[in-house]
Design goal:
There is one protein chain. The chain has about 450 residues and is α/β, with parallel strands linked by helices. The protein folds into 3 domains: about 1-75, no CATH class; about 80-90 and about 355-460, Aspartate Aminotransferase, domain 1; about 100-350, 3-Layer(aba) Sandwich (Aspartate Aminotransferase, domain 2), CATH 3.40.640. Helices cover about 45% and strands about 15% of the residues. It has 20 helices and 15 strands. It has helices at about 1-10, 15-20, 20-30, 30-50, 55-75, 100-110, 130-140, 150-165, 185-190, 205-210, 240-250, 275-280, 305-315, 320, 325-340, 345-350, 350-355, 360-375, 415-425, 450-460, and strands spanning about 80-85, 145-150, 165-170, 175-180, 180-185, 195-200, 215-225, 255-260, 285-290, 300-305, 380-390, 405-410, 430-435, 435, 440-445. The strands form 4 sheets. A 7-stranded mixed sheet has the order 2-10-9-8-7-3-6, with helices on both faces. A 4-stranded antiparallel sheet has the order 11-12-15-14. The longest helix has 20 residues, at about 30-50. It is globular and about 90 Å long. The two termini are about 45 Å apart.
């Protein structure tokens, strides 16, 4: 009898939905999701009653638990996090943060029809790449440009256009593997090009390329090894010399820069990387690079070079499969326009701004935050101390280089304390992502521009 009374203490689904709290949840989440969550919660409570729990106590908590269930279901896993890993362009965290101008342009593109493939002057059909082509020519000196959805696609379509059924010559030292186990030989195979390896892992000479050229050669491929470095007894054929070899043989040179930069990074205290304009000037017939790495824009792949080759790429049926949508084109246009004002670029482009932050500024931030963060984590048995650490660019750019930085060293009792705290911080409404090093959880503050963001996120811990 007591058991039956416990079950009767639970309200019916109709009673809950018709209550003030139930109506508010239906208004916020919709009737169908609310009813589904309610039935699931009532089933769980009936199971709890069978295990001996009080029905009345469970019924009293039903509105609160139902609201929490619906809030959890409504919350996207694709939500903002605090990137305190020390890797500025973190592939798993979405790489580059867009400039405010780019974010506004993307929002406007989402909310409005655009003249995406419509020529406002003639009233006829236009080309979506035209919105970016002029800017890319201006910033790089290239004759023409095509834009696709990432650099792997740029390399794929360029290889397919120039080398399908033909040979593509590449140095063994440049047969790289990029993120997600995508390997250059596999991309070449999918493109229909026949890989011809020349040289050795550590040394390749002009004669290696010259001796490999045959009537079946479709192109020479040069790959910038941005995600690893070979040191010691090495030799490679620089782009200008390789361009001369390709030109003499009457075959195109494709230079894949990978990350790709439109500016000299040494101006921001980083090691110098070849710029896109330099690659164009050195004689490459086509140059490919990414949009969401050093350039600081949304994910995209750029193909710059000779007009006739770009025309052929645009005529390739693959182009439609790898083209960009209006949102990314709008964001890219706004990003590229920032490069026309180099004096203010670092303050307006988040990628460069974060990479250029001086260690002294970050260290002062760490000293300022350490006592406040320590107070918030004291109840969890953890302490916070300011520390020096090392950041990196990420996404395969300058992988052996580190940037002096500073952060917070979080410690606690027990050998698993860093793992426990890292897991707890990942479960916050705004997750905090750091890295574990030398028995502590390190929060590198290079990418934290507002103290309040960290403190507000931790208050929920």
């Amino acid at each position: 009898m007591a058991g039956a009374q416990a079950f009767r203490a639970l309200p019916s689904a109709d009673q809950v939905l018709s209550s003030e709290a139930g109506r508010a949840l239906v208004e916020a989440h919709g009737r169908t999701p609310t009813l589904a969550a309610l039935r699931k919660r009532l089933d769980a409570m009936r199971a709890a009653i069978r295990d001996g729990e009080e029905g009345a106590a469970l019924a009293a908590r039903l509105p609160e638990l139902l609201a929490a269930d619906l809030a959890a279901e409504a919350r996207s896993d694709l939500r903002p996090v605090l990137n305190l890993t020390g890797t500025v362009l973190h592939t798993n965290l979405g790489r580059a943060i867009l400039a405010e101008e780019a974010a506004k342009a993307a929002l406007a593109a989402m909310r409005n029809p655009l003249a995406l493939e419509f020529d406002l002057d003639s009233g006829g059909r236009g080309q979506r790449d035209d919105h970016l082509r002029g800017l890319l020519r201006e910033l790089t000196g290239a004759e023409d440009a095509a834009i696709v959805n990432n650099n792997a696609a740029a390399v794929l379509i360029a290889l397919n256009t120039l080398g399908q059924g033909r040979e593509a010559i590449v140095s063994r030292g440049e047969l790289i593997e990029i993120g997600g186990a995508f390997r250059m030989p596999d991309i070449m195979a999918r493109a229909g090009a026949k890989l011809v390896e020349v040289g050795t892992t550590n040394r390749t000479h002009p004669r290696d390329y010259e001796g490999a050229i045959t009537p079946e050669t479709g192109l020479i491929l040069k790959v910038h090894t941005s995600n690893y470095r070979i040191e010691g007894f090495t030799a490679e054929v620089e782009a200008p010399k390789l361009a001369a070899i390709a030109r003499k043989a009457g075959i195109p040179l494709l230079n894949d820069l990978g990350s790709g930069s439109l500016v000299d990074l040494s101006a921001y205290g980083l090691r110098r990387e070849p710029t896109v304009a330099e690659a164009v000037a050195e004689g490459a017939d086509l140059v490919t690079f990414s949009g969401d790495k050093l350039l600081g824009g949304p994910q995209a792949g750029f193909i710059l070079g000779r007009k006739d080759l770009i025309r052929a790429i645009n005529a390739n049926p693959l182009k439609r499969a790898v083209r960009l949508d209006k949102i990314r084109i709008a964001a890219l246009e706004a990003t590229l326009r920032l490069y026309r004002d180099p004096e203010r670029l670092a303050e307006r482009l988040p990628t460069l701004r974060l990479l250029a932050r001086p260690q002294a500024e970050i260290r002062a931030q760490a000293e300022r935050l350490a006592p406040q963060v320590g107070a918030l984590l004291a109840g969890l048995g953890h302490e916070a101390q300011a520390c020096d650490c090392a950041s990196q660019i990420g996404s395969g750019a300058l992988p052996t280089d580190v940037i002096p930085s500073a952060g917070l060293r979080l410690t606690g009792e027990g050998g698993d304390a860093p793992d426990r705290l890292a897991a707890r911080l990942r479960r916050l409404p705004r997750p905090i992502i750091g890295h574990i090093h030398d028995g502590a959880l390190i929060l590198d503050l290079r990418c934290l521009e507002r103290d309040a963001d960290l403190l507000e996120a931790l208050e929920a811990s």
